[in-house]
Batch of 3 targets.
Target 1
Amino acid sequence: MASSAAVPVPNLAFRALRGARSPGEFAAAVRRAGREIGEHVACDARYVGRVESGEIRCPNYAYERVFLHLFPGLTLRDLGFTAREDVRGRAARQAAADACRTARPEPSHTVRNDEESDVLRRAFMGGTAAVAASLGLGAPAPGLAATIPAPRAGGRFGETEVRAVEDAVRRIRLLDDRHGADRLYREAAEPLRTAYALLDSGGALRQSTTDRMHAGAGELALSVGWLAHDSGRPEDARSHYAEALATARVAADAALEAHAFSNTSFLARDAGRHREAVRAAQAGQQAARLLASSRLRALLALREAGGWAGLGDRAACEQALGRAHTLFGRGPADDDPEWMSFFGEPELEYLEAQCWSALGDWPRAVRHSRRATVLQSPRFTRNLALYRAKLAVDLACGGAPDEAATAAEHAMDLLAEVHSSRIDALLDHTARLVAADAPAAPAVRSFLERRAMLQV
C-alpha cells in the first residue's frame, strides 16, 4: 500500500527571513527572542533545517509566540507556515494544548546546553524520528550517501545496513584525513539522516545488530559533527555531538559516550568555554573507566589538560598531562576504539603544545608543535597541515617571525589537498602577527604575498 504522507514543500519564506545568517546563528537569535518573552525554546541548526525543508509545517505554541515576537507584524502564513487547523484535527489541537500546559523542564545533567536538551528530549521521549529529519544541507556525494540503503518495508534492518553505516563512518574519516572538512560537511548529512531513519524504522532480529546500529549512527553523528567543527560551524557541531551523546545514553554504550564527551570537550575548549571543557573531559573519563583502552583515557586526560590550561590553572594542567603521558605510555590495546587511529605520538605532542600555548609558555609550545610536525605521517595530510600551521602561530607568538612564516608556507604547501577553516584561521592569525612584527623580512614578505594571492 502506498504511503499517503505528503511530500514536504520547502518553506522559502522562512528561508528568506534567515537571510545571510547561518542556521546556527539564526537558531541563536530565536533562542534570544524566546528569553525576551520568557519562553524556553531549544532551537538549534537542525530545527531550522527542518522548518526550511518543510518537514515542520506549523510550529508548536511556544515557537509560534517566539517567531511572532521575532518578526512583529507578520503572521504564521507570512512566515511560510500552514495554519494549525489545516495540519491537525480538533482532538489533536486540544491534546497539543494540554501538553503545552502540563510540560515540565527536563532534569539537568552534566554538560547541559540548549541543543542537547532538544536532542535528548527527542531521543528519550519521542524516539529518533526527528533526528532523521532533513538538515537542508545540500545534495549528497555519490560516494557517501549511496552506500547506505533506505529503510526496508516492515521496518527491519540487518547486517547489510549496519555494515553500510559503519563503512560510511570509515569513508568520512578517511576523506577528512586527506582533504579536511569544508568539502565534506554538507555531503555527509544524507548518510546521517539515513542511518537514523533506519534506527527509527524498527529494529533488527538480533539485539547485537541493533546495538551495532546505535553505535554506528552515533559514530556517524560524531563524524559529521567533527566536519562541522573543523569547517567553522560550532553550533552545528554542538548539536551533532549532543545527538551522539543522546544515542549513547539510549543504548547504554560507554565507548560512544566517552567519544561524545571527548568531542564536546574539544569543541568547548575551542569556543573558550574552558570550564565546560574540563567537565566534559572528566565525564568522558568516568564513562571510559571500565573500558580496556588506556589510549582513550589518555586522550580524555589531554582534553581535561586543555581545559585547565584555558582557565590558567598550570598545576591542574600539569597533573592532567602527567596522567595522559602515563596512560599513553601503556601502549595501544586491542580494545582501542577504531576512531582513535589519529591518536599517536604526533597528536599527543600537538595537544600538549596547545596547553603550553594557552599558558603563554611559547618555548615549550614551539618544542612540542615542532615534534608533532616531525613525527606526523604524510598520510594524515590534514593533521600535518594543522600541526605546521600551529607551529607557525607558536613561533610568531614566541618572537620568531621568519621561522613562523616559513612554517606557515610549509602548511600552505598542502592546501591544494586540504580545505579546513581551522587551518585557515591559524594561517590568518600568523599573517597578522608576522605582518605586525617583521613585515620587511624576506620570509615574511614571501608568506604574506602568497597568502594574499590565495585570498583574492
Target 2
Amino acid sequence: MMADPIWLDDSHDVRDAATLRAHYERTPTPASIFKECREVHPLYRRYIEAAPFVVLATRGPQGLDTSPRGDAPGFVQVADARTLLLPDRRGNDRIDSLRNILHDPQVALQFLIPGVPEVLRVNGEARISASPALLERFVVDGKRPATVLVITVNLVFFQCARAIKRSRLWDPAVQRDRSELPSPGEILQTLEASFDGRAYDAALQERQARTLY
C-alpha cells in the first residue's frame, strides 16, 4: 500500500509569525528596508519606462488573479510621482482584473525588463477610467484602449536578482521550443471535444497579429 503523500502531513505547518521567523535565521538587511519608497523615485521611474511587460495582481469575490500586460517599453506611463497610468489593451475580454478592481481597488504590479535581473514591484490602489481624453493619450495604430487604470502608488521597491538568476529567465540557452508543450488549440479541444483545435491553431498567429490593439 502506497504511503500518504508527504504534503498531506500538516503537523509541521507554520501557523504564527514567531514560528515563521524561527525558520529564517537571517533578518532583513537594512538595504531590504530602505529601498522602499512611497512614491516613484526618479531612479525607479527609469525601470517603469524601460519595461515592456508587467504582471498585474488583483483580488475579488472569487479570489486572487494575476494578469500579464505587455506593450512597447513605457506603455505604463508615470503621470506623476504618485500616479501610474496602465492602458487596458485588447485581450480575451474576460475582464477578470477589472471586475476585481471594482470590488477591491488594491493592486500589485511586477515590472520585468528583458536582460535585467532585478524586478520592480509596485503596490497601490486603482480606479478604472473611460475618460475619452485619457483613452486618446494611449492610441496605437489608430486604436484606443477600452479603459485605463489610474493607479495611486503606495509602495515601490526593487526585488533582488536571485529569482531571475536561478530561473535563467533571460538566458537564450535555456529557451524551450514551443512544440514541446501543448498548443492552445490542443488544450481547448481536450477540454471541449467539439472544439476544432487544429483550425484554431492554424489561424492563431494571423488573428493575434491582426488584433493586437
Target 3
Amino acid sequence: MRPLLLGVCAALFFAVSFVLNRRMELSGGSWAWSASLRYLFTLPFLMAIVAGRRRLKPLLLVMAERPATWLLWGTVGFGLFYAPLCYAAAYAPGWLTAGTWQITIISGSLLAPLFGQWMTGPKGPIYIRGRIPIRGLGMSLIILAGVALLQIEHAQHLAMTQILLGVLPVLVASMAYPLGNRKMMELCGDRLDVFQRILGMTLASLPFWLLLGIYGLADVGLPSPGQVGQSVIVAISSGVIATVLFFRATDMVRGSMSGLAAVEATQSLEVLFALVGEMLILSSSGPSLLSWAGIAVIILGMILHSLFSQRSGTTASTGPRMKSRISPPSA
C-alpha cells in the first residue's frame, strides 16, 4: 500500500503543474518559459539535497561512464515529457491536459516488453523480458473510461484545433515519461538513490532546457515576474516533491510490472486534483452529474488496481525465489 500512497501524494503535487501552467498561459506567459524555468529552478534544490547527503560525486562518476545514454534518456524522460505538456496548456484547459495525460497508464504497461532483468536461477543467469500485465491493463482501461466520462461534456465545447493541439503533445509526453523513467532505472540499478537519479536526469536534460529558454527569449522576450514566481512554485511542488515521491514509489515496485502499473495508475487522480484546483484558482465551473460518474469510475479503478497489486505481491512471495540482477553477468 505504501507505494500507492506515495503515488497519490505525487499526483496531488503534479496537479499543481496543470493548474499553474494554464494560469500562466491565460495571463500571457510563454509555454517555453513555463517548461524551461521549472527545471532550471529545480536544479539548485536537487543539487543542495544531493550534495548535502554527500552523494554528488558518486552520481557524477556514474554519469561519466555513459554520458550519451544519460543525455538521451534524461532528455526523453524530462524534456519530451514536460515541454509537450506546457505546449498543450496553451491550447486546452488544465483538466483536459490532465485527463489526456492519463493515457500514460496504458503507455507504461505497453512498454513492459522493452525491459527485462537478469535473474540467477537453478541453471545459472537468465534474462527475463517483461510482459504486459493484461489484468492490470484492463483495470487501467476502467480508469481511462472514467476519465473519458469526466471530459465528455466539456470536450463538446472545444474547437477541433484545441483538441488536436491540446491532445497530441500530451500523447507524446505520456510515452516519453515512463520510457525515460524506466530506462534510467535499468541503467542505474541500485547504484543511485531516487534523489541522485532525478538530479542526474535534470543535469542530462539541461541542454534541452537551455535551448528551449533561448527559443522563449527570441519568441516573447524575458518572462514576467509573475511567471517566474509561479514557475518556482511548480519547480518545488512538481519538480522536487512530486517527482521524488513518484520515483520513490516506482523504485519500491521496480521488480513487478503489475506493481509499476498500479503506481502509474495513481496518477489518474491528477484529473480530480486539477479539477478542484481550477475551481478554486481559476474559478472554473463545478463538475456535472456525468463528470461525477466519471470520478466514481476512476475511484473504482484505483481500488481494483490496489487490490490486484496486493494480491500479485502475495502470490509472488510464495513462489520460487531468484536473485535479481540489473546488469548482465560478465563472461
